Amino acid sequence: MTLEVSDLQVYYRTLRGDVRALDGPTFGLADGEIMGLAGESGSGKSTLSKSLIRLDGRMRYIGGSVTLDGDEVPIWDDQAMNEFRYKRISLIPQYAMSAMNPTRKIGKMIAELLESRGVRFRDTRDELHRRLELVGLQRDVLDRYPLELSGGMKQRTVMVISTLLNPSLLIADEVTSALDVSTQRAVAETLVEFRDRRFVKSMIVVTHDISLVYQIADTIMVMYAGRLAEKASAKTIIEMPKHPYTKMLLDSLPEVGVKYEDKRLSGIPGSPPGLLKPPQGCRFRDRCPLADKQCLEQPPFVEVERDHHVACWKAE
Amino acid sequence: MTAAQPLPDPTTAAEEPAAATPEAPQREALYFALRNPKLIVGLSIVLLFLLVGLVVPPLLEHGPNERYAPPLLPPSGEHWFGTTQFGQDLFTQFAYGIRATFLVGLLGGGIAAVIGMTIGFVAGYKGGWVDEVLNMLTNVVLVLPTLAVLFIIAAYVDSYSVTTQSFFIGMTSWPWAARAVRSQALSLSSRDFVDLARLSGVRTWKIIVRDIAPNMSSYLFMTFILLFGGAVLAAAGLDFVGLGPSDGMSLGLIMHQAVKWGALQLGVWWWFVPPGLGITAIVGAMYIMNVGLDEVFNPKLREM
Amino acid sequence: MLKFDRVTKVYKVGAFGGGSFTAVREASFEVRPGEVVSLIGESGSGKSTLGKMALRIASVSSGTITCDGTDVSTLRGHRRLKEYYRKVQGVFQDPFSSYNPVFKADRVFAMIRSEYHPGVSDAEWRDKVADALKVVRLDPDQVLGKYPHQLSGGQLQRMLLARALLLDIDYLVADEVISMLDASTRIDVLNLLADLKARGMGILFVTHDLALGNYISDQTVILHRGEIVERGVTSKVFADPRHPYTKKLFASVPQFHKKWDEVEAELRAREAADTSSQPYHLAEGQAVPSELVEVTEGHYVQPFHPRAAV
């Protein structure tokens, strides 16, 4: 599978004008690639993941294109997207595990979901059982209510449901944030297993926890204020980042083994710009220690080394 | 050492110059209140009726029960709302009737509000056995067949006043308010800012009045509106079946007499339509007021 | 010193309070002035309950909590509690829930003023507030006179710390204070806590994040299902975890320069090397005692069955 996103622009309508939440990211995803999409709040990562599946009615598609396996994905058309959703592109939204109807047994809910997509529950039941066992759940989970399951179990159930029809692309939006540390690892490793068994071809894992995504992703893409900052292999991002934001972000994260007395970490002063009237040029300019007049012009997202893209004039 | 200087957020609205003291919210609320169309329209309608009820009766020549005019006249220049079967001026009756309506609403609704809110707040904030005891009390009063009780009382007592009627209605309609306030107070009491107030050494009653109640102020007002409306409608119901106060005039009584004397069959619309519209207008206007008030009190809604 | 001695919390659950649920069982540890103690546990471990008991927001079922010698777990009366709050304060996880949304954010300062410093003049109070804000590195013009939703999470949390400073407290309970903040602002608040520690404040730092605990704390307490399974000097607990649950936690924490497999392999290698019988190993059928056993000086672990699953 291949995914090509080109100059995607998606804004949010508000009473006071358009919020330029996503302003031109361009990137590609290869077959079998797990890409971690990292960024803080307001970076545009959730907007990007939701716009690929057109989930939010407040989003306004402005421009750009998304191509999946050579087919143009009609992300501006809610109706047309029905063909793609769940079958070719699937999303595990944030808080999915809390969104299950508490008065419905899980099996019933899955049956209804499949019927709505035109798939007979009976046809997929065996595969469903197989996959539930694969993630460590008993098949009697289908007879239970969501209330009876723990957070980790619910999340794994949701993951199985989202990938039942073997979509080419799976987008997992903050699937581990609400879980305990020990369950996070199990869920993250399950994601990798789905890719390894070809239940899904490629994955975008959206998270604010870079250390978690480093464990399972092949590449990491860092977003800031609606634009792409850097994309490279996970190892390169962690060890040799080139964008000042990435560097400062990594420098601000405490790690097991680092003590305050030995190495005092520091945060990034200031806060991300408002996207109603974003600043001209590079959006990180106001907080960047390397910024100068050149940064008044938006730096392009270019490949500075093999498979390493950065949007910064100062990247060396 | 880097200083954390947060940049001004361009999406925030411009600030009114306000002091950093707790009195400022009231002044600000007033500022917004004067600019909210729903609040102004609703309040105007209510005040208009109130004004009619207060100011008009002394100006009128005849009393509400005086039979001086030709019967069953449709509305005209001389009799704005027409006349009844007995030659009573309907506009006079209407103006006097509004007084009783407001009295019942305010008094009956007020009593129910005070009792219900007090019990609701204490039960919601304290929890534990206090909550259980108050819940039991609320449930007992709730299952009393209030209308039947009121009917029985009204049937046995020879005559009683509008005040007494309000009192009875207030004493039997508070459980609903207590439950509503309790559930809101319960959820607010678990919020961190209540814990923070406790950690600041603030006493229980102060926390309820200053921290919890303002967060439900529109809810409390809404509760009062519904109690007001409920009291008005309960009174109108009683008056309509002839079990109302023996003295005075009320809108429900007008409608009672209208039906009793066949106004529906005779097509005498001016006898029963105005009082009905009157009740509807007063209660409806209060609902609109409440929506506006919610916007005034909630700063987040304001910036929209 | 803020001392927890065999503190237990039991909740009544079920219809008519028939059943019971033990949130915390026999927890014992200390917080000294100028020291940060991390209380680390996952959800349901009882860590927040311990914090709430220290702040007297939750009552203590049995055991005692003493603050500089005075038993605070049985304090009665509004006045005595108020005096206690001059010494111990708390900051909670959700900055937006800690502020009453219908009032301006600086009302939290005004509340302190009216309850604890009623006679202070306006000018003097303004200076006090400005000083406290300076310590937490906030600009008064940026944060005073604003509503909570107009400020960022980081600013709100700092203001709560400034509020605690206005009371000149000895101990602070910080319950997951940075978990809802953005990554790049978290470290600033964390550094701030370290500064407060340097000024002599004792901090009980409740968190689920091992990396944060390691960064600023002197002592670490690991909680599992209401019981302390391991505690001691942070460097010792982190360098040489003994309890199976602690090891499981360490194996699951995502790190930056090591993948999970590597961490697990390291832990397992260390385990394989250590086959000797330890004083904290229990035999089959032996019940788990409530006292922790010393591993080395300043490092204690709850006895466990070496082959039992966690």
Automatic annotation (TrEMBL), chain A:
Domain of life according to the entry: Bacteria
InterPro entries membership: AAA+_ATPase (IPR003593), ABC_transporter-like_ATP-bd (IPR003439), Oligopep_ABC_C (IPR013563), P-loop_NTPase (IPR027417)
One GO-annotated biological process of the protein: peptide transport
Keyword terms of this UniProt record: ATP-binding, Nucleotide-binding, Transport
The ABC transporter domain, residue ranges: 3-250
Cross-referenced Gene3D superfamilies: P-loop containing nucleotide triphosphate hydrolases (3.40.50.300)
GO molecular function, one term: ATP hydrolysis activity
NCBIfam families, sorted: oligo_HPY
Protein's recorded name: Peptide ABC transporter ATPase
From TrEMBL, chain B:
PROSITE patterns per the UniProt record, alphabetical: ABC_TM1
Chain segments carrying region Disordered: 1-22
Alphabetical list of CDD domains matching this protein: TM_PBP2 (cd06261)
Keywords assigned: Cell membrane, Membrane, Transmembrane, Transmembrane helix, Transport
Superkingdom of origin organism: Bacteria
GO cellular component annotations of the record: plasma membrane
Record-level Gene Ontology MF annotations: dipeptide transmembrane transporter activity
Protein name, as recorded: Peptide ABC transporter permease
KW Transmembrane (keyword) present: yes
Stated family: Belongs to the binding-protein-dependent transport system permease family.
Keyword presence, Cell membrane: yes
Boundaries of every ABC transmembrane type-1 domain copy: 98-290
Pfam entry (one): BPD_transp_1
Spans traversing the lipid bilayer: 39-60, 100-125, 137-157, 219-241, 278-297
Gene3D superfamilies associated with the record: MetI-like
Membrane-topology descriptor: Multi-pass membrane protein
Localization terms from the record: Cell membrane
Composition bias type Low complexity, residue spans: 10-22
UniProtKB/TrEMBL annotation, chain C:
Alphabetic keyword roster: ATP-binding, Nucleotide-binding, Transport
GO molecular function: ATP binding; ATP hydrolysis activity
Pfam family, one: oligo_HPY
Entry annotated with the keyword Transport: yes
Domain ABC transporter: 2-250
SUPFAM superfamilies, alphabetized: P-loop containing nucleoside triphosphate hydrolases (SSF52540)
Swiss-Prot/TrEMBL GO biological process terms: peptide transport
InterPro entries: AAA+_ATPase (IPR003593), ABC_transporter-like_ATP-bd (IPR003439), ABC_transporter-like_CS (IPR017871), Oligopep_ABC_C (IPR013563), P-loop_NTPase (IPR027417)
Top-level taxon of the source organism: Bacteria
Protein name as it appears in the record: Peptide ABC transporter ATPase
Lineage: Bacteria, Bacillati, Actinomycetota, Actinomycetes, Streptosporangiales
